[in-house]
């Protein structure tokens, strides 16, 4: 029995459908059809739709954060430039076809009040992003609390990019992040006029 293959196909289908169309508008039968599995097999692996949504979000969390970190790690610059690279990566993500904002916020907005597991995954994702940015800010010599502010800039940019359908908020958030780091004495002068590269 190809459990791993079936699970991967189901999660791929769920991610494609849930992110593009919204969780509530996509039924399990649509996921089954797209994944090419039987409904029985789908429910064997994911006994409820909430289970499937949680698994989809948990996998997306790992992939999203890993892709972001990979981009930042490829920056051979100062610690402050590594912080700014986060917003360059966001600009690239915003410009991709099919960008619909934050999957975690979207799912929480649809299910958070009635699906504690979905809400918990969404919260963990936001906490992980905040912690990641806090680490980058500390490496850049910024004072305590800077990582939280950088996370708020990123979250605002994601929301505005989804609403305006333009990657421009990433560049605007990047500039505010640069000023925040510079004012905090983190020496973030790099990229002041470089603009967004993602």
Structure in words:
By secondary structure, the protein is mainly alpha-helical. Helix content is 72%, strand content 0%. It contains nine helices and no strands. The protein has helices at 3-21, 28-35, 39-45, 49-73, 79-94, 103-111, 116-139, 146-164, 168-183. Helix 5 (79-94) runs parallel beside helix 8 (146-164). The longest helix is centred in the first third of the chain and has 25 residues, at 49-73. The N and C termini lie far apart (42 Å). The model is unreliable at 187-198 (pLDDT under 50).
What is the subunit organization of this protein? single chain
As a percent range, the share of strand residues is under 5%
Class derived from helix and strand content: mainly alpha
Mean pLDDT: 91
Unreliable spans are 187-198
Number of helices: 9
Radius of gyration: 19 Å
- How many strand elements? 0
């Amino acid at each position: 029995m190809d459990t791993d293959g079936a699970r991967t196909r189901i999660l791929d289908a769920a991610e494609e459908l849930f992110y593009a169309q919204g969780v509530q508008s996509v039924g399990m039968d649509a996921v089954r059809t797209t994944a090419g599995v039987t409904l029985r097999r789908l429910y064997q692996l994911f006994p409820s739709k909430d289970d499937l949504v949680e698994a989809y979000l948990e996998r997306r969390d790992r992939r999203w954060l890993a892709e972001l970190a990979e981009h930042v790690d490829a920056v051979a610059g100062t610690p402050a430039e590594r912080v700014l690279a986060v917003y360059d990566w966001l600009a690239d993500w915003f410009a991709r076809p099919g960008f619909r904002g934050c999957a975690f916020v979207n799912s929480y907005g649809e299910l958070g009040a009635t699906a504690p597991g979905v809400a918990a995954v969404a919260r963990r994702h936001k906490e992980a992003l905040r912690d990641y940015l806090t680490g980058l800010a500390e490496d850049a010599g910024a004072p305590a609390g800077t990582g939280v502010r950088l996370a708020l800039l990123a979250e605002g940019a994601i929301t505005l990019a989804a609403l305006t359908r333009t990657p421009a908020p990433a560049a605007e958030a990047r500039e505010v992040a640069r000023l925040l780091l510079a004012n905090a004495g983190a020496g973030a002068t790099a990229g002041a006029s470089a603009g967004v590269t993602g």
